[in-house]
Amino acid sequence: MVRTFVAIDLPEEIRERARASQAVLARSEGRLAIVDPANLHITVKFLGEVDPALIGSIGGALRTVAADPFDLTVGRAACNPPRRPRVIWCDVTDTGESAALARQVDDLLSPLGFPRESRPFRPHVTLARVKEFHPSQCKEAASLPPEPLGRARVEAIKLKKSTLTPRGSVYEDLLEVPL
Q1: CA-to-CA distance for 163 and 67, rounded, in angstroms?
Q2: pLDDT at 169
Q3: Given this model, what pLDDT does residue 47 score?
Q4: Phi and psi angles of residue 39, each rounded to the nearest 5 degrees, phi first
Q5: Residues with a known catalytic role
Q6: 90 burial class (0-12, 13-18, 19+ CB within 10 angstroms)?
Q7: Is the pLDDT of residue 178 over 80?
Q8: Whole-prediction pTM
Q9: Which of 12, 76, 78, 81 has its CA 20 to 30 A from that of 87?
Q10: CATH number assigned to the domain comprising residue 160
């Protein structure tokens, strides 16, 4: 089985700004699993463990995505949920294109047996996962500069393979679909 997901990659300049935010978050008490900045992305759809024989069909479906390139903004770090966070993330805003893209991916992959998402799509970039909560984690996130991490032009989506290791996930691009 192959652990896979559909994602939007982020440009290097946003990942570098995120790295600076992660360095501040790492000073907090409690325990965080900081996401490797090279792995920062926006998940469009998590597929989970997939039979390798299905990868070609998934790729074929994704190649039919009909969307134009669009711009989005990656906001500043925040705890989610704020009172007892499981992750520290950056909200992502656009004018609805990423949600429309997620719905289209859902529609295209549903006939292949992937269940449609039951919750509304909320684009975000996970900076860290909270392993042991301490209020200082949210305090450090709130202390970060209020400016967004940056704007990005989305020109493609990717089908990615995720291999879990003791040192974190290792991602491999299986397919890139231009918009």
Answers
A1: 29
A2: 83
A3: 97
A4: -95, 0
A5: 41, 124
A6: buried
A7: yes
A8: 0.92
A9: 12
A10: 3.90.1140.10
Instruction: Identify the bridge partners of residue 74 per DSSP, sorted by sequence position.
Output: 92, 150
What gap in Å lies between CA 81 and CA 41, rounded to an integer?
A: 20
Distance CA 92, CA 149 (A): 10
- pLDDT on residue 167: 77
Smallest CA-to-CA distance from 70 within 178, 147, 148, 175 is with 178
Question: How many degrees, rounded to 5, is the angle at CA 90 between CA 46 and CA 169?
Answer: 45
Q: How far apart are CA 14 and CA 10, in angstroms?
A: 7
Site of tokens 């008490």:
29
Q: How many CB atoms lie within 10 A of CB 81?
A: 9
Q: Name the β-bridge partners of 80.
A: 87
Distances (CA, A) of 81 to 73, 87, 142: 20, 8, 13
Tell me how many domains the chain contains.
1
CA 109 to chain centre: 18
Domain that holds residue 99: 2-178
Rounded Cα gap, residues 50 and 165, in angstroms: 18
